[in-house]
Design brief:
Elements lengths: L7 E5 L4 H17 L3 E5 L10 E5 L7 H11 L4 E6 L5 H4 L2 H21 L4 E5 L11 H14 L5 E5 L4 E2 L8 H13 L13 E2 H11 L6 E5 L1 H8 L1
Parallel strand pairs: 1-2, 1-4, 2-3, 4-5, 5-6, 6-9, 7-8
The chain binds NADP nicotinamide-adenine-dinucleotide phosphate.
C-alpha cells in the first residue's frame, strides 16, 4: 500500500492554449515536490516527463470517462486536485447542445470523477461573466458548469475568470478571436477600475496562476479575476 499523501493532480486540457502553457511549470513543481500529474488526453502528448502520466481516453465516447476512471484506479492514483482548462467553441462544437455537452457536462463529469477519486480541490479555467442566468450561451454554460461543480463537495474550488485570452494557438484558426486579439491593445487601456476584469489577458499569465493555485490550502469557492490572475502570475 502506498503511504504517500494524496497530492496527485488530474489534468484536463493539456493540449490546449492555457493547459499547454501551464503543464511544463506544473511538472517542474511535481518533480520537486513529489506528486504526479495524470493528464487526460484524446491524443498522445509530445511532451514527456517523469512526473507526467497520460491517461488516453476518448472522452466524447459513451465509455470514455469510464475508461479514464478505470485507468486512474489501475494506477493507484491519490488525487488532491483537478486542474481543468478544457473547453471548445460554439463553432467547433457545431451546436449549442454540443457546446454545452463539452464546456458544462464534460467538465462537470471530470470533476465528479476527480471527486470520486479523492480530489479536494477543483481548479477550473472558466470565464469572466460566467453566470447561470445569463442570456449569452457561452456565459450561461460556464455559469451552469460552475454551479454544478460547486455542489460536488470539494473543500476548495477556484474558478479562474479571465477575459479574452491572448496567445498563439496551434489548432485551427479562430477568425473572431484573431480580430479581437488584434484590437485588444487598443481597448485594454480604456478598461479601468472594475471594467479591467473584461480586458484581454495573456494565456501565459492564466497558466502561471493555475500553477500557483494548484494544491493551495484553504477552503471555499473563489472566482479569480484578471487582476487577481495577474497578481498570482507575478
Ligand atoms: N479563448 C478565450 O479568449 C477564452 C476566454 C476566457 C475563458 N476561456 C476558457 O478558458 C479555457 C481554456 O481555453 P483555451 O483557449 O486554453 O482552450 P483550447 O486551447 O481551446 O483547448 C481546449 C482543450 O480542451 C480539449 N477538448 C476540447 N473538446 C474536447 C472534447 N470533446 N473531449 C476532450 N477534450 C476536449 C482540447 O483537447 P484536444 O486538443 O484533444 O481538442 C484542449 O486540450 C476554456 O474553457 C475556455 O472556454 C477562453
Amino acid at each position: 500500500m502506498d503511504d504517500r499523501q494524496a497530492r496527485d493532480v488530474l489534468y484536463a486540457g493539456a493540449s490546449g492554449l492555457v493547459g499547454g502553457l501551464a503543464l511544463p511549470a506544473l511538472l517542474e513543481r511535481a518533480a520537486a515536490e513529489g506528486f504526479r500529474v495524470y493528464a487526460v488526453v484524446r491524443r498522445p502528448l509530445a511532451l514527456k516527463h517523469p512526473s507526467l502520466h497520460p491517461i488516453q481516453a476518448d472522452l466524447g465516447a459513451a465509455d470514455g470517462l469510464a475508461d479514464a476512471a478505470q485507468q486512474l484506479r489501475a494506477a493507484d492514483v491519490q488525487l488532491q486536485v483537478l486542474v481543468c482548462a478544457l473547453g471548445t467553441t460554439l463553432r467547433q462544437a457545431g451546436s449549442a447542445a454540443a457546446f454545452a455537452a463539452i464546456d458544462r457536462d464534460l467538465v462537470v463529469a471530470l470533476a465528479q470523477l476527480a471527486r470520486a477519486q479523492g480530489a479536494t480541490q477543483a481548479l477550473v479555467v472558466s470565464s469572466v461573466g460566467a453566470q447561470a442566468g445569463s442570456r449569452n450561451l457561452y456565459l450561461r454554460v460556464k455559469g451552469e458548469m460552475e454551479a454544478q461543480i460547486s455542489a460536488l463537495g470539494f473543500t476548495r474550488v477556484d474558478f479562474l475568470h479571465p477575459g479574452l485570452l491572448l496567445g498563439q494557438r496551434n489548432g485551427p484558426p479562430r477568425p473572431g478571436e484573431g480580430i479581437a486579439q488584434a484590437l485588444a491593445p487598443l481597448f485594454n487601456p480604456l478598461l479601468i477600475g472594475p471594467l479591467r476584469r473584461y480586458g484581454a489577458i495573456s494565456a501565459r499569465s492564466v497558466a502561471a496562476a493555475v500553477v500557483a493555485l494548484c494544491g493551495e490550502p484553504g477552503s471555499g469557492i473563489s472566482r479569480i479575476s484578471n487582476r487577481q490572475i495577474q497578481a498570482l502570475a507575478g
